[in-house]
Amino acid sequence: MSTRSPLPDVSELPLRPELPDPLQMLDGSRISTREDWVARRQPELLRLFEHYMYGYAPAPPPLEFRVETAPASALQGNATLKLVTIEIIEPEGVPPLELLLVLPRPAQAPVPVFVGINFAGNHTLLADPAVPEARCHQLEAHARAARGAAAGAWSVEQIIAHGYGFASFHTCDIKPDRSHPGEGIARYFSTRAQPDLYDWGALRVWAWAASRVVDYLETDPDVDARRIALVGHSRLGKAALVAGAFDPRIALTIALQSGCAGAAPSRSSVGESVRQITRGFPHWFNAEFEKFAAEPARLPFDQHCLAALVAPRPLLFANAIEDSWANPVGQFEVLRAAEPVYRLLGKSGLESERMPGVGELSSGPLGYFLRAGTHSMTAEDWSAFLRFADRHFRR
Ligand code: GTR
What we know:
Layout: H1 34-54, E1 63-69, E2 79-88, E3 97-104, E4 111-118, H2 151-154, H3 156-161, E5 165-170, H4 186-189, H5 202-217, E6 223-233, H6 235-246, E7 252-256, H7 274-280, H8 303-310, E8 315-320, H9 328-344, E9 366-371, H10 379-392
Parallel strand pairs: 4-5, 4-6, 6-7, 7-8, 8-9
Antiparallel strand pairs: 1-2, 2-3, 3-5
The protein binds beta-D-galactopyranuronic acid.
Beta-D-galactopyranuronic acid binds next to helix 7.
């Protein structure tokens, strides 16, 4: 099948109760070389995920950046804050994306940077008055979170002390997390003739925004653009995984407790199901995905294929033992099923036959981490993320 031939209707796709082989093309032919993976299977899988689940996204638009460095240092003198406005020049009228960039001070050589997608505004990540409040006009006043409210979750101090930079943007700048039609960036990219030109769900929009952040970071001399890590929690862990799969410039991807439609298999009876997620959050996906609600076994892929699209770059799935809604055990199986692709590309994949114990970080480029506790982002998660990044960025 050529990558541009029409794709079957959902009802015509065969039922496959087992995880589909990531190295088998939709037409049944097998992939056995790195060249075939790159030329045939990788583009096919990207298209399948776009077509049946996350939606198509526009090509990178022309951008302009405005950078302001905060006059005073932050984090007790240990950091410099840059406030970056990412303007999308075309199409016209798109509201800008506001990026917070925190860099270790005094400045060293270009630093690797963790990019975090945040839920409630850049001002929630640090209790520093220099960070402007989230501007997102769709947020009701009562839903606004306080300055520094998420500082504990993001552990920016720990990241900076470890010699990494940290960058973050708020989902709401680009698409609020609710299913009000016409909100967010999508309408600027559709045309009267083709109102659903892209039909991209929120997860794809947020992932696309993460790529625009990488566009900026590549221009910043204080940043080592070959060592950009992307992190998201929960629904934003799903978005981080989508971004890692679609954008090879993201050198390392971390999906924390991302669950269904992220790191967990869609073919599973544990945790959230495709039916539940498409009913609860239809705006995260394109219109095709809900057609799989009754029979996820019709999906021509499962989430191990998304993980495989990150190959050969390092990928970490992190979980909490009490968070069964995100299916921690199923996520380990997803990594295992992505491993043949890592091996084909000359990497070791998951260097562990069994799930690592609580608090242990597995050692391969397909990393797994499970901690005690519930659904949240904590300082313990961040120390695992830093260990994983140190290992794979060879620091
Ligand atoms: C839940 C949803 C999950 C997960 C979570 C979150 O309600 O069912 O898929 O993403 O929200 O984002 O906190």
